[in-house]
Amino acid sequence: ALNGFVLVVTSEGLIFYSSHTIQDYLGFHQTDVMHQSIFELIHTEDQQEFRRNLHWALNPPCAPEGEPSAEGGKSLGSSAVAYKPDQLPPENSSFLERSFVCRFRCLLDNSSGFLALNLQGRLKFLHGQNKRSEDGSALPPQLALFAISTPLQPPSILQIRTKNMIFRTKHKLDFTPLACDAKGKIVLGYTEAELRMCGTGYQFVHAADMLYCAENHIRMMKTGESGLTVFRLLTKENRWKWVQANARLVYKNSKPEYIIVTQRPLVDEEGGEHLRKRSMHLPFTFATGEALLYQSACPLLGFPDPLQSKGKTSKSRKTSHSHGGRSQKDGIDPSSLLGAVMRQDKAAY
């Protein structure tokens, strides 16, 4: 419900907690930033200001080069001092309220690499940390910054509207849909059962976007994340809906287990702009999705040999022309890209 995200930063500058909505503003996943140094996310020119606001008296001790200094509860062996509660102002004191601006690293494509955030909150004691001093005695709870971080520049009405319709889907490694949240069902119109019974999931993707999505699918299988991917999905009403998606691999016991995709609906003009940019740097046209995309005469450059992942046919097998488009005795392989496009209703185009 907030136009921002919640942030709790310990006295030594570690992110103790961030709400998951940090992903909507900075592009970092909640699990990527928790228990990491806040100073890795902050513009170098603003780091000293953040240090100052972490200190109860706005006067942090000098830290060794490259080591974040803060208000007291510093990790052992550092230059900061651990304070006892009786050395500090009362917790409800207005002296501990904070409101300041810092530039944070931002991975989203509409930023210049940094986003100015206004942090508003206060220093409060962070309990249950069980930290010990050098002599082994237990340290009392130290002050941490509890703040709500909101963009300095308010978002446009359009951004607010599209942000409110961000939805998430869950897939097998070959992209077969497994689950979809409530907002996704509203945007696409399908029930979860309808999404699951239809094959690999590529039959919901526009023919002109399939190889582009498949290429990013391969990248995700190699690196764990697809990067921003803009493509069209087929809705229940037989219309195409532009979405901007980012897919991430989820691991279990160090093996990839399933894919989570975060998707944001786009207006047609925005999708068309992405399409024009895309065709500039890819070696084949995506304007229509004509049959030449699926011919087996010339394999695509850059696609590796078929990957195997938990017994599933991975995307590289489907996209390589020699495998994906091959006719078999019982017809075309339904898990290939050609099989997916042939299952689509031509009236949708």
UniProtKB/TrEMBL annotation:
Keywords: Activator, DNA-binding, Nucleus, Transcription, Transcription regulation. Its main location: nucleus. It is found in: Nucleus. One of its GO terms (molecular function) is nuclear receptor activity. One of its GO terms (biological process) is xenobiotic metabolic process. It comes from the Eukaryota. The keyword Ribonucleoprotein does not apply. Residues 1-61 form the PAS domain. The keyword DNA-binding applies. Residues 61-83, 308-349 are annotated as: Disordered. GO terms for cellular component: aryl hydrocarbon receptor complex; nucleus. InterPro entries: AHR/AHRR, PAS, PAS-like_dom_sf, PAS_fold, PAS_fold_3. Residues 312-326 have a biased composition (Basic residues). It holds the Pfam family PAS_3. This is AHR protein. It comes from Anhinga rufa (African darter).
